[in-house]
Write a structure and sequence with these properties.
The complex is a heterodimer of chains A (418) and B (388). Chain A is an all-alpha fold. Chain A is built from 15 helices and two strands. In chain A, helix 14 runs antiparallel to helix 15. Chain B folds into two domains: 95 residues, no CATH class; 218 residues, MetI-like fold, CATH 1.10.3720.10. The two termini of chain B are 59 Å apart. Classes of the chains: A mainly alpha (418), B mainly alpha (388). At the A-B interface, helix 4, helix 7, helix 8, helix 9 and helix 10 of A face helix 1, helix 8, helix 9, helix 10 and helix 11 of B.
């Protein structure tokens, strides 16, 4: 029989068993109650408990079995596994029926099962983080066995192209050996991030200050969704915009000044990434500026200073930890942004300070390493994981620092909505 | 040191001017941000609009023995180069399936070649002079014109721009999103319920909370690395399939759903919980019968926003191989597939400039779907949100 029919059959039998458990134990409980005995729970609760003990362990066993089967490569025939699960389900059914007694707290038992189930769901997020960490670290370690960590951190030449020859056992045929010096990649990443921040912080912060301090309520209500639309646009769309519209524009404008710009210059993705991040900074700073207590503003105005002086000397300094925290989060987003740079930035690792030249970034190199026709074991593929590890560490650090700053802000002004 | 009245009023004027200047500058920041949006949308509309139109030519198609062997012979020699090769290819099969056609001649509108299409749209001129004359004649007779492009919505990717469509990517997106939501909606809501209603305030709970916040800030491409290393290499989930893409996106969307569900649960006033406890409900009964129903609109709103986010995500899907060339739509979660943003990415990197308008057209479709989803979320929130 094909696999999915067996599986469907198994599910159907389980559902039927659950149904039997439900009706039988419900009937039994109703019967017991009809004799005048006081019971700790309602008949329905006994019934649901019976269903849980019937289906739960059986599902658990089959899932565990499938896991062992898939991972350890253990040779248990599927049929035996499912049959064993069904036997367990039967045992559970009998036990569940047995538990329909007046002194059994069925509701409390259900409560316990559900609490465990919910806790298990909550653990999945931890498993995800562990999964990211383990997968990246283990592959990165394999990379560092092939190429030295020191060269990776301090090298200035990123030339993974020749590594496929090594992987194919023809290492000495190619002209130059593969080199994995990540400095040019990080230089490109930071350059583009810097450009993005130069756009996003003034615009985002300015828009937030205007909306909180100056704008009438009507404007505020209309402007917020407009800014949020910017946040909802997919990054691939920004990428197309950067590559097709902004990059040629940058080249033309640079041409007017007699400068020679590349069509995959760093300026275009940086600018567009900045636009993408504006709503991020503006909505976070909006919240922060909003939670600066009004007493500070009123006290300042009462001393006779103008509104802009109040904003500059009172509100912004008070909100500074929150604003810095928002900016750090934005930096971490810009560092990890992929599609815009994949589509609009160059592929050539280039160590330069000129934003009109093409340069590549960490995320571009990750994508390039993993989309080629490389086998998984080659150094180029594994280098993606080494880069990913660095990216993970940097963004995690930025995030932790930002959480720390926002906590300081929160404690200082006792606001709870941040 | 004392100042005269004039000095003081001049100084005041200056200060007020500076204040006004700051107001205008911050307002300018807001207006410019909104202007970016307008420029951006109009740029995409201008670029993408032509994609919804397609040049078609009315020709006499003769279905006979000769054209069954050599499909090109089905139409007049002059118009032949103007017509898409995608029209000729299925001709013999069409005749085999429908023997009644044999020996007849029919006047049909057929899809024109992309060079004709681009020429009629005024984009670029790559036609030979002789073909151009034929085309001009056809246009004057009203036998060649731009019509609504149904092909774009009914076919998959193609190497011929005039035949490329968004349908298989749309189906891939639907399949992927089904997997994503099937995984992350229950887990996300369960996690949020646990953290808000059940969890004891201990170290483990704090770790879970910090971890969820961190997960929300992890760059999306790292989820792709996770999907590649764990799902594909370790568990052997088929590459490029909606299954692996959906699972990867599910992990990415999980924090969004958890955070918004927690906010929705927190907005339910404690008086409701107290009343339910007061009549003897257990904790689970309180959650199931009172807290969850009341907070459901908020949970759905958050989930739809999370879904819209996942729908626009490309980077992790590229890593797990969902940028495949998929000419035919297939409704399967384990077969190779592509999604709309990945399709846009593929078209954007095509050297043929006729694909540029396909790219923008795909973007318009994607944006329309996302705007619809977000509007739905806002509508849900406004209609069902209760202030306590």
């Amino acid at each position: 029989m094909p696999m999915n029919i067996v599986f469907l059959l198994f599910c159907a039998v389980l559902v039927v068993l659950g149904g039997i458990a439900f009706t039988l134990s419900r009937a039994k409980a109703t019967h017991v109650r009809a004799t005048g005995m006081t019971m700790h729970a309602q008949p329905d609760q006994y019934a649901w408990f019976a269903v849980l003990v019937t289906a739960g362990p059986a599902l658990l066993v089959s899932a565990l079995g499938a896991f062992v089967l898939l991972l350890m490569g253990a040779d248990i025939p599927t049929f035996y596994l499912l049959a064993a699960s069904l036997v367990i389900a039967l045992i559970g059914l009998v036990m569940g029926l047995n538990q329909v007694r007046s002194d059994f707290h069925a509701r409390r038992a259900i409560e316990g099962v559900i609490r465990k189930l919910l806790a298990a769901a909550a653990m999945i997020s931890i498993l995800t983080t562990l999964g990211i960490l383990l997968s990246i670290i283990s592959e990165a370690l394999r990379f560092f066995q092939m190429h030295s960590f020191w060269d990776f951190v301090t090298g200035t030449t990123w030339n993974p192209g020749a590594s496929f020859l090594d992987a194919a056992g023809r290492g000495d045929e190619g002209g130059s050996a593969a080199q994995f010096g990540s400095i040019p990649l990080f230089a490109g990443t930071f350059m583009i991030t810097l450009i993005a921040m130069l756009v996003a912080i003034p615009f985002g912060l300015g828009a937030a200050i205007y909306m909180v301090e100056f704008a009438p309520l009507r404007v505020r209500k209309a402007a917020k969704p407009v800014i949020e639309v910017l946040a909802g646009i997919p990054t691939v769309v920004y990428g197309v915009f950067a590559a097709l519209t902004v990059a040629p524009l940058v080249v033309d404008i640079a041409g007017l000044f007699g400068l020679d710009a590349s069509y995959s210059n760093a300026l275009a993705p940086g600018l567009v990434m900045g636009i993408m991040i504006i709503p991020f900074i503006s909505s976070l700073s909006d919240d922060v500026i909003n939670s600066v207590p009004n007493s500070l503003r009123e006290g300042a105005l009462a001393l006779g200073i103008t509104k802009s002086e109040m904003v500059r000397n009172v509100v912004v300094p008070a909100a500074a930890p929150g604003i810095i925290s928002a900016s750090l989060l934005a930096v971490s987003r810009a560092l990890g942004e992929t599609m815009i740079v994949v589509m609009a930035a160059g592929m050539r690792p280039n160590l330069t300070a000129n934003p009109l030249e093409d340069m590549t970034t960490v995320t571009v190199s990750i994508v390039a390493a993993l989309t080629g026709d490389q086998e998984f074991e080659s150094a180029q593929t594994l280098s993606a994981f080494a880069l990913g590890l660095v990216l993970f560490i940097v963004t995690l650090t930025l995030n932790v620092v930002s959480v720390f700053m926002i906590r300081r802000f929160r404690e200082k002004y006792r606001v709870n909505n941040l | 040191m004392s100042q005269s009245f004039e000095e003081i009023s001049a100084q005041l004027k200056k200060r007020h001017r500076r204040s006004a200047r700051m107001k205008w500058m911050t307002m300018g920041a807001l207006i410019l941000s909104a202007a970016f949006l307008v420029v951006f949308i109009s740029d995409m509309v201008v670029r993408g609009w032509p994609a919804f139109q397609q040049a078609q030519i009315q020709v006499e198609v003769s279905y006979d023995e000769q054209s069954r062997k050599l499909p090109l012979a089905a139409v007049d020699k002059d118009v032949r180069p103007l017509i898409s090769r995608g029209f000729f290819r299925p001709l013999p099969r069409k005749m085999e399936n429908n023997p009644a056609l044999m020996g007849t001649t029919q006047t049909q509108w057929v899809i024109a070649d992309s060079r004709v299409d681009q020429y009629l749209k005024g984009n670029e001129d790559r036609l030979r002079p002789a073909d151009k004359e034929t085309l001009q004649a056809l246009v004057e007779e009203g036998r060649a014109e731009l019509k609504f492009n149904t092909t774009f919505f009914t076919t998959g990717d193609s190497k011929m721009p005039e035949l490329a469509g968004i349908a298989s990517a749309a189906i891939g997106t639907v399949m992927t999103m089904l997997v994503t939501m099937a995984v992350c909606f229950p887990i996300g809501v369960m996690t949020a319920v646990y953290l808000e209603e059940f969890a004891p305030d201990n170290k483990l709970t704090q770790i879970i909370e910090i971890n969820i916040n961190n997960l929300a800030a992890v760059p999306s491409i790292l989820f792709g690395l996770l999907g590649l290393a764990i799902y594909i290499s370790f568990f052997g989930v088929p590459r490029s399939s909606p299954l692996v893409g959906g699972l990867t996106l599910a992990l990415m969307t999980l924090p969004v759903i958890i955070i918004s569900t927690r906010a929705a649960l927190r907005s339910v006033p404690d008086s409701i919980r107290h009343a339910a406890f007061g009549v003897g409900c257990s904790r689970w009964q309180v959650v199931r019968d009172h807290v969850l129903p009341v907070s459901l609109p908020g949970i759905l709103t958050g989930s739809i926003i999370g879904l819209a986010q996942a729908m626009g995500e490309t980077a992790p899907l590229i890593i797990v191989g969902m940028v495949a060339f998929i000419p035919d739509a297939s409704i399967s979660i384990t077969g190779a597939s592509t999604v709309m943003p990945a399709q846009i990415f593929t078209w954007a990197s095509e050297p043929n400039s006729a694909f540029a308008e396909k790219t923008a057209g795909g973007i318009l479709v994607l944006l329309a779907v996302l705007i619809f989803l977000n509007a739905l979320a806002v509508w849900l929130r406004n209609k069902f949100e209760r202030r306590w």
